[in-house]
Amino acid sequence: MTRICIIDGHPDPAPHHLIHALCDAYAEGAAQEDHAVSRINVGSLDFGFLSTPDDFATPPPEPMLSERRKIADADHLLIAFPLWLGGMPAKLRAFFEQAARAEFFLAASDSAHKWPMQMMKGKSARTVISMGMPGLVYRFGMDAGALRALERGVLGLSGFGPLHHTILGGAGEVDEAKFKRWCTDMRIFGREAV
């Protein structure tokens, strides 16, 4: 059994969005193998933006404190979001900033010459990004910027590994067959906890 935390990064909590359906399918697959699943629905949370280094140094208030415990307890993360203006939605970015407060992802080293301590060592992650443009255009034409920033930044620096990702291009015009195929893929990922 793997403990999985699903981070649904769509900022709109309305149920009709593709990202919500993909997260549901992943959770269904995980349940088929009796993996323990917790969920963080970023669009349903109420939190502000960080403005000062002093804020970043202190623990976050609720509900963020409780939500990030789900990350701490998990062996594997699924992070899913739609691409907006070439990056992750601002609310998801703000979520990660809030979650990272008080050395949650990275902690100061006990030596002046060492790399910060990676607080997420031993955890794996998959990122799923949906977008209107073709996936190949995003991957090669735009250099997959948001994905690279997340994988090399928050996830990589804090010790997550291995890292997997799924880029779903053409999400603006998804027919029934493609939607079913994507949900089937997500159920498989959920069952395998990857």
UniProtKB/TrEMBL annotation:
Q: Where does the Flavodoxin-like fold domain start and stop, copy by copy?
A: 3-177
Q: Name one Pfam family in it.
A: Flavodoxin_2
**Which InterPro entries does the UniProt entry name for this protein?**
Flavodoxin_fold (IPR003680), Flavoprotein-like_sf (IPR029039)
Report what the protein is called.
NAD(P)H dehydrogenase (Quinone)
Its lineage opens with: Bacteria, Pseudomonadati, Pseudomonadota, Alphaproteobacteria, Hyphomonadales
